[in-house]
Amino acid sequence: MYVSQLPFLRDHWYPVAVDGVLGRDLPIRLFGAPFRVTFDGTGEPFVTAPAPTWRTPRPLPVRRRYGLVWTTVGEPVLDDPPTWPEAELPGWRTFVEFFETWSCSAPRIIDNNLDNSHVAYVHRTTFGDPDDAHLARPAVSHTDDPYFRAVLSSEQKGLGVQLGVTGDEAIRFGRTSTTELVAPLTTHVRMRFDGDVPDYAFFGVATPIDDHTSIYVRLSALAGSEQEQPWDRFHAFGTRVKEEDRIVLETTVPDFPIDVTSEVHLRCDSATLAYRRTLASLYAQHESSPPLQEKTWPST
Ligand SMILES: [Fe+2]
């Protein structure tokens, strides 16, 4: 289904600008409609629906969190954007790692955040290894219904370069990733190394511009000091990983199935299957959702 066919997505918070930019007047599109982000002389951000192209011109609610300006175009189900735990932890440093427009539908981006099966192939020049394409099955458990977390332990190469502890990309590091879906288009990922090297964490959000286009935002949090985990090396490696994802994601179709039979899935797809079930549940609960069409298969 397309973003425009999933009305519940509108009732959540999305980042629409990087905070701290004085005097900017920024036209944006959200869910296919025009809006505007402005910062007054003191740097206070505002988001408005410009008249007369919008039927009910109105200021949108705004929150400033984690270096970003967030808004919602619908009836927000929560008073604030999701909490990013590592931003509150002492000793952690937080960064807006990237804030970019991608030619990809928002659910495809989040699906990729949750997917482990693509790593060995898509990330073969960073932390994936096609010679070790073991497809482990993440352990999925429910958090706040209908959301969930997926936990997976693995031995990953390349990470020593990201972490700034070695220049040898072949050395493997034992890592446990915990990926939580905290909103329909928001993931929280915590990477744990059991004290061998500093942990890090991500907050990934896909802000729908329209059915085909999204703002892909990643916040990164690094444990330890700049000497223990240098930002420049982390960011340089993360940029390579991100570009590997972009090449594939920008070729995906924007029609994202919220059933589990339209696309082929393997046992290792436990998290991405859970994602489809979550979206289907949110769709079914929302009063504005039209009835789902019965799927019809072409006759042979
Ligand atoms: Fe990826």
Automatic annotation (TrEMBL):
InterPro entries named among the record's database cross-references: Cholesterol_7-desaturase, VanA_C_cat
Alphabetic keyword roster: Oxidoreductase
Pfam families noted in UniProt: VanA_C
Residues in Vanillate O-demethylase oxygenase-like C-terminal catalytic domain copies: 102-284
GO MF annotation list: oxidoreductase activity
Name the record gives this protein: Vanillate O-demethylase oxygenase-like C-terminal catalytic domain-containing protein
